[in-house]
Write a structure and sequence with these properties.
Mean pLDDT: 80
CATH class of the largest domain: Alpha Beta
Strand content: 15-25%
Number of domains: 2
CATH topology of the largest domain: Rossmann fold
Pfam family, one: Rhodanese
CATH architecture of the largest domain: 3-Layer(aba) Sandwich
Shape: elongated
Strand order of the largest sheet: 1-2-6-3-4-5
Organism: Colletotrichum shisoi
Order of helices and strands: HEEHEHEEHHEHHEHEHHEEHEEHHEHEH
Number of helices: 15
Protein name: Cysteine synthase
Structural class: alpha/beta
Distance between the termini: 57 Å
Length: about 450
């Protein structure tokens, strides 16, 4: 056995499946919350058969259990085919005849996946009659409930496993009430050490928990993570792809726009010009500090109120047929200070401090929902729809520009979901200006 649990060579998979080449399967004592008899000297261990390579029950756990827990006094498992209880029980009794073997069955007409009811098993071909000392029946609701309790304690187990533990607890309760519990104790330890098998997982039976158990058995989940998840599941369901986020230099190359010369000469390839009003840099960024959440929230509430009509700032002037379409989501003030000529401006009428820099839109579920909802309204009807349709008919992409790339990233995903070839600029307008100006 490799102590590092590494399997090599042409027989690696076969060796991996051979239980003799792996450490013993975990034997985990259940928490006292699940063991009402702990003060009576009862210790209960879960044998995790689901830790086998294929999560199956192919290896006989008897020798492992005895080597791990020599003081075992009770072995309990659900009964399906009868192979596990017969093989394991027979081995354990051959080593210590005083070990009690408890077989747990379904209640007739109330099935739990995996085990059988006794009347469907008693004609089994395995020699179980000389091995099984006690038979117990457990309802499906009790099986699912105990499975859920095990999983909540960190022992991930399915309903068959829950049925095994519930059957074991019923057996111990009966032994205690009958005054026979102490007779099961090990002479050396003075304790009653019990093992039950966990032979299934809960995942394929999830619907059964809600069918078998009452609503009040499921604790309400009240936390910010779930609230955020519910919000996000109601919006932003379109695909996101990093390939749709352009590096600023690549975006500049795509626009084919060079830094404006002193005479304002236009680029000949796309006939686009970098329009920059004589507004000092300080005045364009005054009041924008750290990207505080309050400022951003205020900005979100006032954004996406429509498309600027024809007139100021060339907001809806027709772009040349060969030019990419630019949707600029920034405020009138920022757009007036600097924009790509021919860009279509979507008004952000009340720019709030902090909106332009440092905003982690995707770290705020409420912000995502607000922006996404407004973008949906924006792209549903109005002048923007015509702009997008013309871009599609011309076969040119739509470049969405915002302050730091966050809102445009969301807009790009939404537009892509509508069949528009949309792109955004990583880092937003500020990074694009640097690329256009030739700055690093």
């Amino acid at each position: 056995m490799d102590p590092l649990n590494v399997f090599r060579g042409p027989e690696s998979v076969a060796n991996y499946y051979n239980p003799d080449n792996s450490p013993p399967l975990p034997l985990v004592e259940i928490p006292d919350r699940l063991n009402p008899f702990r003060r009576d000297g009862v210790r209960i261990y879960a044998k995790l058969l689901t830790a086998l390579p294929a999560q199956n029950v192919k290896s006989l756990p008897g020798p492992q259990i005895l080597s791990q827990l020599p003081e075992i006094k009770v072995f309990c498992t659900t009964v399906g085919t009868g192979g596990c209880i017969t093989g394991t029980g027979k081995y354990l009794k051959s080593q210590n005849p005083s070990i009690q073997v408890v077989g747990v069955f379904n209640v007739f007409g109330d099935p739990t996946p995996g085990p059988r009811h006794f009347y469907g098993f008693q004609t089994c071909g395995f020699p179980w009659k000389g091995t099984v000392d006690v038979q117990r029946e457990v309802s499906s609701a009790d099986a699912y409930r105990m499975s859920m309790r095990l999983s909540r304690e960190g022992i991930i187990a399915g309903p068959s496993s829950g049925e095994a533990l519930q059957g074991l607890l019923d057996y111990i309760a009966e032994a205690k009430s009958g005054g026979k519990l102490q007779s099961l104790a090990d002479d050396a330890t003075g304790e009653v050490s019990c093992v039950f098998t966990c032979s299934d997982l809960p995942y394929q039976y999830l619907d059964g928990y809600f069918q078998k158990l009452a609503n009040d058995e499921f604790s309400p989940i009240e936390n910010e993570s779930l609230r955020a998840l519910k919000i996000l599941l109601s919006c932003d369901q379109d695909r996101h792809d990093e390939r749709w986020i352009l590096d600023p230099r690549r975006a500049a190359d795509m626009l084919n726009t060079r830094r404006m010369s002193d005479d304002g000469k236009k680029d000949e390839a796309y006939d686009t010009q970098l329009s920059e009003k004589s507004v000092p840099v300080k005045s364009r960024t005054s009041g924008i500090k750290s990207g505080g959440k309050a400022g951003f929230t205020g900005w979100i509430k006032t954004c996406f109120k429509g498309v600027e009509p024809h007139g100021q700032g060339n907001s809806l002037q027709e772009a040349k047929d060969e030019s990419p379409v630019v949707l600029d989501l920034r405020s009138a003030q920022e757009f007036s200070a600097r924009h790509i000529e021919g860009a279509h401006r979507v008004s952000l009428d009340a720019l709030c401090p902090g909106a332009a820099v440092g905003v982690d839109l995707f770290g705020d579920a409420d912000a995502v929902h607000r922006v996404w909802t407004n973008l949906q309204m924006l792209f549903k009807d109005g002048p923007v729809v015509g702009v997008l349709e013309r871009a599609n008919s011309r076969g040119v992409p739509v470049l969405v520009l915002c302050y730091n790339g966050e809102v445009s990233r969301l807009a790009t995903s939404l537009l892509r979901g509508k069949g528009v070839e949309a792109l955004s600029v990583g880092g937003g307008a500020d990074e694009l200006w640097k690329a256009l100006d030739g700055k690093k």
